[in-house]
Amino acid sequence: MIIEWSLNGRPLKSEVSPFTRLLDYLRTDLKLLGAKEGCREGKCGACTIWINGEVANACLVLMGQMQGREVTTIEGINEKDKFTPLQESFLTCSALECGFCIPGMIMSGTRLLNEEQDPSRLEIRQALKGHLCACTGYQKILDAIEGVGLPPASEGSAKMRLRK
Ligand code: FES
Ligand code: FES
């Protein structure tokens, strides 16, 4: 089956079984490894991408459903190979340990920030409710999203950058 879709802003025609999972196609055929394979059943958020601008789990959708859709992966959110402000904030806040969950967290965090530039802690928690971090680094991840766009701290921990 030929699927005509768009990936990271580029139109694409893919000859693929309609029953191939999007996550498998991205990782195996296209070698886009940013979306991670964790639980394979929609529970961990490691495979989070956007479909038509909305957060989705790539492990739960099939290529046959991608006809005419716009898919964005973490490889598609940077401008000219530069980190986004949220990615910079994750670095500033040291908001990663093994890093496995981070691409999914970034995709959901970016989606939230596109909607709401100054989200509350509760809104951030709600946006991340579909994500599991096996390293349990949740506080720094919340800090990173909350601290986007604030100037770097002059001293002390990244928490000083946070809005009250
Ligand atoms: S691998 Fe898709 S939600 Fe866990
Ligand atoms: S940083 Fe390791 S799973 Fe989240």
| Radius of gyration, in angstroms, nearest whole number | 16 Å
Identify low-pLDDT runs: 154-164
Could you state the order of secondary-structure elements as H and E?
EEHEEEHHHH
What gap, in angstroms, lies between the N and C termini?
53 Å
Number of helices: 5
CATH topology (fold) name of the largest domain: DNA polymerase, domain 1
- CATH superfamily descriptor of the largest domain: [2Fe-2S]-binding domain
Mean pLDDT, all residues: 91
Could you tell me the number of beta strands?
A: 5
Domain tally? 2
CATH classification, class level of the largest domain: Mainly Alpha
Strand order of the largest sheet: 2-1-5-3-4
Computed structural class: alpha+beta
% residues in beta strands = 5-15%
Shape: globular
Bound molecules: FE2/S2 (inorganic) cluster
Helix percent reads 25-40%
Annotation keywords:
single chain, 164 residues, alpha+beta, Ubiquitin-like (UB roll), DNA polymerase, domain 1, 2 domains, 5-stranded mixed sheet, 5 helices, 5 strands, 28% helix, disordered C terminus, binds FE2/S2 (inorganic) cluster
Write up what this structure looks like:
The structure is a single chain. The protein has 2 domains: 75 residues, Ubiquitin-like (UB roll) (Roll); 77 residues, [2Fe-2S]-binding domain (DNA polymerase, domain 1, Orthogonal Bundle). A 5-stranded mixed β-sheet has the order 2-1-5-3-4, with helices on one face. A hairpin with a 2-residue loop joins strand 1 and strand 2. The C terminus is likely disordered. The protein has 164 residues and is α+β, with helices and mostly antiparallel strands. It binds FE2/S2 (inorganic) cluster (FES) (2 copies).
